[in-house]
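User: Fold this; tokens only.

Assistant: Input:
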Amino acid sequence: MTVKERYRTIIDIFQETMPSPETELRYENPYQLLVAVILSAQCTDKRVNQITPSLFASYPTPQALASASQDEIYELIKSCSYPNNKARSLKGMAQNLVENFGGNVPDDIDSLMSLPGVGRKTANVILSVIFGKAAMAVDTHVFRVSERLGLTTGSRTPLETERTLMRYIPGELAGRAHHWLILHGRYVCKARRPDCLNCPLTRACRYYQKLGQNG
């Protein structure tokens, strides 16, 4: 199977088995998703969804969050990973949004990455989910699953993975593909014990084929 054939097969299977994948983070507007994605770094979506209701109730706008103290933000997010760093990032992000973008979440990667706490992955999530742009956010699930499936080969960094995926995945499918790979990695192709017996992708999966050859 060539690389192009593998991509085509995997995309076709995902379109059939998971036609409308979505982020599991709960949000109502671009500001809320930006906050949630910042909080989700090295933290589960489930935990973030437990934190954000009270955070958004207290600080429903970037202006409100910008006026909060770091300690006040910390108290509301302290059950997530790295709460001190994230409280500082959230306050800085909100101040930056208010001062430089009129309180609106920008729609280009350079502006997004100028915000405290926003790296390339977070920026790409916002671009694809909120603005519908052809962007591929690579987290640990996307990085791992892409390599296992054979969508990437020897990729050393998330940026390498992103560039390879965007080379082969049609731009209009990039946002959905991001969620396909995340959800597949979260529930099927798990880090320690991939559930190959319940995976619909085995006929196109390099990892599974190697298992068969070695088994």
